[in-house]
């Protein structure tokens, strides 16, 4: 008979038998397993309850902080808009002539007179007090 086929002399079979024997020894007795199972489920249940309470607490903290974060984001957006906005009233003559509208001639005005058309995109509304007196 081939020694590799003999279960008593094959190293793999011997290792498998040793593993089975260790598994039998590590297996708890029947009386202790019920008590351990009960303790395991109780510990799991307590951990689930504690985790749920911590999660709800963090959720409430998040909800309480939302108005503060919203206020901070609004301020940041206002600051970004102010940085990106163009000052309409600051023309060349605006600081010297208070009756001036802030319009200063530029190189574009010469192209406008040559027939080129320029459009400004956006929403515009006319306010009643802003019309120049003619």
Description:
This protein is mainly alpha-helical. Helix content is 58%, strand content 0%. The chain is built from three helices and no strands. The chain starts with 10 loop residues before the first helix and ends in a 21-residue tail after the last helix. The model has no long low-confidence stretch (mean pLDDT 77).
Outline of this structure?
The chain is an all-alpha fold and 134 residues long.
Write the layout of secondary structure elements.
Elements: H1 11-26, H2 30-84, H3 107-113
What structural category characterises the helix and strand content? mainly alpha
The tally of helices reads: 3
Please state the CA-atom Rg, rounded to the nearest Å: 42 Å
Question: Helical amount among residues, as a percent range?
Answer: 55-70%
In one word, what is the shape? elongated
User: How many strand segments?
Assistant: 0
- Average of the residue pLDDT scores: 77
Q: Largest sheet, if any?
A: none
| Approximate strand percentage | under 5%
Topology as H/E string? Answer: HHH
Distance between the termini: 121 Å
As residue ranges, the low-confidence spans are none
List the main descriptive attributes of the protein structure presented here:
mainly alpha; 134 residues; 3 helices
């Amino acid at each position: 008979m081939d020694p590799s086929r003999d279960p008593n002399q094959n190293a793999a079979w011997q290792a498998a038998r040793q593993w089975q024997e260790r598994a039998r020894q590590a297996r708890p007795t029947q009386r202790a397993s019920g008590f351990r199972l009960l303790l395991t489920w109780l510990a799991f249940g307590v951990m689930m309850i504690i985790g749920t309470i911590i999660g709800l607490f963090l959720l409430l903290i998040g909800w309480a902080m939302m108005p503060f974060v919203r206020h901070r984001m609004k301020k940041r957006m206002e600051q970004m808009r102010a940085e990106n906005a163009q000052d309409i009233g600051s023309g060349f003559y605006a600081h010297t002539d208070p009756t001036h509208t802030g319009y200063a001639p530029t190189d574009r005005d010469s192209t406008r007179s040559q027939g080129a058309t320029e459009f400004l995109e956006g929403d515009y509304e006319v306010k009643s007090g802003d019309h120049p007196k003619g």
